[in-house]
């Protein structure tokens, strides 16, 4: 399978559970065993209380598009998704933000709006690597309220 | 903290022999040209320099070796483009304590041509969490700050464009500026889209350039060639690296902290300045910096660029060298605003000279509003 995007690398030990989870179709987030703070990106301590007791929780996959850009060119030869494509900052229901792409949407600022509800689409890039992409939340999910 | 106010002054500034598109010059050559030119501007000799401060690919040790001197104080702080502004604070502290007597802050970057450049960056986090989604170049990150600002405050593309128009008006008066033809809001809106909300004219240039700043203590400055420019206040901070880690995308906490310290040290308020130099990698940067510094209310930074306020002859001139948008932007732009503020305070700026100037504000960011440095400069103590 020819990847359409640069593979995540180098995967560091503290983020291995995150990437392993995605391979199994789950979006896992690090959670502090001390104060309960859920954060992203993975690191060996909690950025709120500095506890080193880190556990993992499965995210709902729901969130909001916090901010975005629409790229009219690729900035990396290994990123082969045709432009224009949507660069997305997702604010997950659990609190943390992550960068991703918004897919299955017209790449047009009239359609793509900050705070629009989104849901994760865990997408296989190679047999070993999956990444969390996001799409506009389907109407049925919106009622649940993200 | 007050002890550092006026403890050092800027006595020499200059660019490399040329700035622009210079494939024939390595970035080490750009450094060495800038240092020798700035030292000459100060009326000093390279052999007088005993403190070297630089950010980027070359270490201060390499600059010392290449210049043929043995510095007894070095600093290679590298937190993005504002590192050179932060180094004015570091140099002032070192000079104040006698750790060095003549400090040089140097920048050289072959950002356009890549002459003498080696690629080495820490990619552990971006490689995992940004690059796979097509992020990379600065516009792919700064667009986030910008669309969020538009969402929260209703800021328009026309308002961001006004920043480019104002800055270009100044560039027209600077013979060293890369672009010297006036532009309109419509020119910005119809330039090539790069990453929404940025078209090409919303984004800084990519050039090859060097620049250096020489500082010493006021007692030593008496022997220098030109009237000293005093560093009355200074501040620095870093708040995050990735845009995802900002508490509030539309406000720079590091900018606020660096400004608050600089203003307190100098004994001035945020509205006391007759001239402002801000780091303009993108048209949305300067307005958000004005808001974060407390000069503009949240969401109102863009109004400082409207109705000719910030342009030649306006009530509050901003980015009078033509900025990163139109004068030069080699990559780590932060040293160039210091050059311009110094020249303005000396009265050397010819057709773009701001009249009767006493107090200039220099502020810039590193990364994505991540780090910040603020300087309050004056031609009187």
Description:
The complex is a heterodimer of chains A (146) and B (381). Helix content of chain A is 10%, strand content 34%. The longest helix of chain A is centred in the N-terminal third of the chain and has 8 residues, at 16-23. Chain A is mainly beta and 146 residues long. Chain A folds into two domains: 9-58, no CATH class; 60-138, Beta Barrel (OB fold (Dihydrolipoamide Acetyltransferase, E2P)). By secondary structure, chain B is of the alpha/beta class. Chain B has one domain: Thiolase/Chalcone synthase (Peroxisomal Thiolase, Chain A, domain 1, 3-Layer(aba) Sandwich), CATH 3.40.47. Chain B is 32% helix and 18% strand. Chain B has twelve helices and eleven strands. Chain B has helices spanning 27-41, 60-67, 83-96, 124-129, 138-153, 157-171, 185-189, 218-221, 253-266, 285-292, 323-327, 336-346, and strands spanning 9-15, 51-54, 73-75, 102-110, 193-196, 198-199, 208-216, 229-238, 275-278, 359-366, 371-378. The two termini of chain B are 16 Å apart. Chains A and B meet through strand 3, strand 4 and strand 5 of A and helix 4, helix 5 and strand 5 of B.
Task: List the topology elements.
The complex is a heterodimer of chains A (146) and B (381).
Chain A: H1 16-23, E1 28-32, E2 54-58, E3 62-71, E4 85-92, E5 97-102, E6 117-124, E7 130-136, H2 139-144
Chain B: E1 9-15, H1 27-41, E2 51-54, H2 60-67, E3 73-75, H3 83-96, E4 102-110, H4 124-129, H5 138-153, H6 157-171, H7 185-189, E5 193-196, E6 198-199, E7 208-216, H8 218-221, E8 229-238, H9 253-266, E9 275-278, H10 285-292, H11 323-327, H12 336-346, E10 359-366, E11 371-378
């Amino acid at each position: 399978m020819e990847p359409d995007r640069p593979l995540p690398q180098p995967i560091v030990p503290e983020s291995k559970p995150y990437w392993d989870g995605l391979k199994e179709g789950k979006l896992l987030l690090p959670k502090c065993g001390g104060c309960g703070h859920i954060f992203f990106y993975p690191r060996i301590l909690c950025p709120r209380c500095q506890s080193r007791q880190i556990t993992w929780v499965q995210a709902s996959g729901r969130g909001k598009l916090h901010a975005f850009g629409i790229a009219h060119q690729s900035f990396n030869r290994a990123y082969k998704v045709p432009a224009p494509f949507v660069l997305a900052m997702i604010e997950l229901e659990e609190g943390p933000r992550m960068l991703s792409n918004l897919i299955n949407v017209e790449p047009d600022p009239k359609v793509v709006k900050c705070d629009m509800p989104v849901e994760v689409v865990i997408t296989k890039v190679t047999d070993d690597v999956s990444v969390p992409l996001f799409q506009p939340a389907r109407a049925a999910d919106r009622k649940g309220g993200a | 903290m007050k002890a550092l106010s006026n403890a050092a002054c800027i006595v020499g500034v200059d660019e490399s022999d040329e700035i622009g598109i210079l494939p024939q010059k390595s970035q080490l050559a750009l450094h060495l040209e800038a240092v020798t030119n700035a030292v000459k501007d100060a009326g000093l000799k390279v052999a007088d320099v005993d403190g070297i401060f630089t950010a980027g690919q070359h270490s201060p040790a390499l600059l010392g070796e290449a210049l043929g001197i043995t510095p007894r104080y070095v600093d290679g702080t590298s937190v993005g483009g504002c590192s050179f502004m932060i180094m004015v604070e570091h140099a002032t502290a070192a000079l104040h304590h006698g750790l060095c007597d003549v400090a040089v802050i140097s920048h050289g970057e072959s950002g356009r041509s890549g002459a003498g450049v080696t690629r080495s960056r820490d990619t552990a986090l971006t490689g995992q969490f940004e690059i796979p989604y097509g992020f990379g170049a600065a516009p792919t990150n700064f667009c986030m700050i910008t669309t969020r600002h538009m969402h929260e405050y209703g800021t328009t593309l026309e308002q961001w464009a006004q920043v480019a128009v104002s800055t270009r008006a100044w560039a027209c008066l600077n013979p060293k500026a890369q672009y010297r033809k006036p532009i309109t809001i419509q020119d910005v809106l119809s330039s090539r889209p790069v990453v929404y909300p940025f078209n090409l004219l919303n984004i800084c240039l990519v050039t090859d350039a060097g620049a250096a700043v020489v500082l010493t203590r006021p007692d030593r400055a008496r022997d220098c060639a030109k009237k000293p420019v005093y560093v009355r206040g200074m501040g620095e901070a870093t708040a995050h690296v990735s845009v995802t880690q900002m508490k509030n995308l539309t406000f720079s906490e590091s900018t606020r902290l660096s400004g608050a310290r600089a203003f307190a040290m100098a004994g001035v308020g945020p509205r006391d300045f007759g001239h402002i130099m801000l780091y303009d990698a993108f048209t949305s940067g300067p307005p958000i910096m004005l808001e974060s510094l407390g000069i503009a209310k949240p969401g109102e930074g863009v109004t400082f660029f409207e109705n000719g306020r910030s342009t030649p002859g306006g009530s509050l001139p901003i980015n009078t060298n033509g900025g990163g948008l139109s004068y030069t932007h080699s990559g780590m732009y932060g040293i160039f605003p210091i050059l311009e503020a110094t020249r303005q305070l000396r009265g050397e700026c010819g057709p773009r000279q701001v009249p009767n100037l006493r107090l200039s504000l220099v502020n810039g960011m590193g990364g994505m509003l991540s780090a910040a440095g603020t300087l309050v400069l004056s031609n009187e103590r």
